[in-house]
Amino acid sequence: MNYHNITKDDMLNGDGLRVVLWVAGCLHHCPECQNPVTWNPEGGLPFGEAEKAEIFKELDKDYISGITFSGGDPLHPANRAAVTALAKEIREKYPEKTIWLYTGYLWEEVCQEEIMDYLDVCLEGKFEVANKLLTLHWVGSTNQRVIDVKKTRQAGRIVIWSEDGSDDTDYAAGSQNGPCGCGF
Ligand code: SF4
After folding, report:
1. CATH at residue 22
2. Is residue 75 within 6 Å of ligand 1 at its C-beta?
3. Is 73 in the pocket of ligand 1 (CB under 6 A)?
4. Is 161 part of a structural domain of the chain?
5. Is residue 168 part of a domain?
6. How much distance in Å is there from the Cα of 62 to the middle of ligand 1?
7. In this predicted structure, what is the pLDDT of residue 172?
8. pLDDT (tens digit, 9 = 90+) per residue, 133-157?
9. Which site from 74, 86, 105, 172 is most exposed, i.e. has the minimal number of CB atoms within 10 Å?
């Protein structure tokens, strides 16, 4: 797996202050993507033990809420195994930290993947310029869903993440909501 950057004290890619790993490789090629430089899985630098230690050093800090995997697409075939292994290790080593992941795949395409055992939040779907909305909190277009992974798997229906942990979504009304296609 290759990566482009590790950003620290990041407030823009998930709840709280986070460390963000920006991986290389994305097959979705959304028009007006902000990071087309990340599309090539051969781009960037190899991710190795030094980079992992850099991430763990951040997660050791009390004020860091967790890690966000972004890119590129962390679930690109070239990244999926390595990101899953890293997420698993972080879940075991830092059970109190949260793990968020951006992907251009739909929840229904990836919800059976092992990595969902380790995620708290999955921000999914391609960026659609026709549905671009600048006021959205964590995503760029209204089709993209910020999915609370644990609650969704428990409920067997898509539960949108909420800042206060409440589950007061009207599942029938919102365009973001609907039955979970995973059969959990
Ligand atoms: S999924 Fe994300 S990184 Fe990939 S092309 Fe779309 S906006 Fe860009």
Report:
1. 3.20.20.70
2. no
3. yes
4. no
5. no
6. 31
7. 36
8. 999 989 999 999 999 999 999 999 9
9. 172
